[in-house]
Amino acid sequence: MRYFVKIVEAGSISRAATTIFVAQPALSQQVAELEEELGVSLLHRSARGVRPTPAGEALYREAVLILRQIEKLPEIVRYTGGEVAGSVSLGMSSTLASFLAGDFMKACRVALPMVNLSFVTEDSLSLKTRIAARSVDLAILFEESPTPGLLREPLFRQRLYLIQRKPRTGRAAKSVTLAQVGAQPLVLASHPNALRSLLDARLAAEGIAPQVAAEANMLHGMLSAVQAGVGAAVIPMGDFTAATGGSGLVALPIEPPILQTAHLVSSADAALTPAGEAVRALLGPFVQRVLDEKAPPGMQKIEG
């Protein structure tokens, strides 16, 4: 299974052989034996490499899950109530990571010194997919309605801002309306994206079609495009002191407010390891301290 997963991910038996230091004929023989045992063809072979057949795609998905569970077995078995240890992957968007990741890594290192925390930075929809595939243990993501197969805990609400270059003369406005947002070129996340869907729906409700000048899914790319004068961006962030490329920009709150809800999510089908549970237990209080002590603009508690 490990060899098959590596071949699919590499897109080539020869590249996989180089990556895992196994002779190419041996890998080809392993795949042939697997196909014979299962009675199906697993790979489409061509001069450009290999890609999985429908049966191969099904095997790949299941193999990734099985191998990940096997990797977790040692830390599950070794844990007997002593100090929590193990590896935990935590995903969040580049916007959230810009003001949460560093401080949480520090808090985790102090509270859970034997836990190896790794960060994955992707958009919310991609993180949902990775949680479902169990390639990420936990994620903080924006969603407004429950997703089947995910456990979720609401953490906070975040307001959307229009990000544009500071005016060369005069003072910047204090806020913008949806009509003003729709009247200028915009740098937006590409579909599918939770924020883009929310913004498009709000603009459509007002009879406004967005003027999409460019699309970018990472915070740095959006800010770079705004700095270059491509257009303004709409993101859930009102403070750029910790963001690379944020100098010379201004964040204007959109009126009436548009809010996204951030949730801590994990798979409903697979239990977290003790290390994963410890990180989950640490995240909630950490976010509440951020809200109480130094919440960035637009980050709000969930009332009720």
Structural summary, described in words:
This protein has 304 residues and is of the alpha/beta class. It is 43% helix and 25% strand. A six-stranded mixed β-sheet has the order 4-3-5-13-6-14, with helices on both faces. Helix 1 packs across helix 2 (13-20), helix 1 (2-10) packs across helix 4 and helix 5 (94-111) crosses helix 10. The longest helix is centred in the N-terminal third of the chain and has 25 residues, at 54-78. The chain is globular and about 70 Å long.
The tally of strands reads 14
Stretches with pLDDT under 50, minimum 5 residues = none
Q: Provide the β-strand percentage band.
A: 15-25%
Q: Quick one: biggest sheet?
A: 6 strands, mixed
Based on Cα principal axes, name the global outline: globular
Average pLDDT taken over every residue? 86
Strand order of the largest sheet: 4-3-5-13-6-14
Radius of gyration: 23 Å
Structural class: alpha/beta
Counting DSSP H or I runs of 4 or more residues, the number of helices is 10
Summarize the structure.
By secondary structure, the protein is of the alpha/beta class. The protein has helices at residues 2-10, 13-20, 24-38, 54-78, 94-111, 124-132, 178-182, 194-205, 219-227, 274-293, and strands at residues 43-46, 49-52, 86-92, 115-121, 138-142, 150-159, 161-165, 176-177, 185-188, 211-215, 232-235, 249-255, 259-267, 299-300.
Identify the notable features of this structure and list them briefly.
single chain; 304 residues; 25% strand; 10 helices
Explain the layout of strands and helices:
Elements: H1 2-10, H2 13-20, H3 24-38, E1 43-46, E2 49-52, H4 54-78, E3 86-92, H5 94-111, E4 115-121, H6 124-132, E5 138-142, E6 150-159, E7 161-165, E8 176-177, H7 178-182, E9 185-188, H8 194-205, E10 211-215, H9 219-227, E11 232-235, E12 249-255, E13 259-267, H10 274-293, E14 299-300
Parallel strand pairs: 3-4, 3-5, 8-12, 9-10, 9-11
Antiparallel strand pairs: 1-2, 5-13, 6-13, 6-14, 7-11, 7-12
Helix pairs in contact: 1-2, 1-4, 5-10
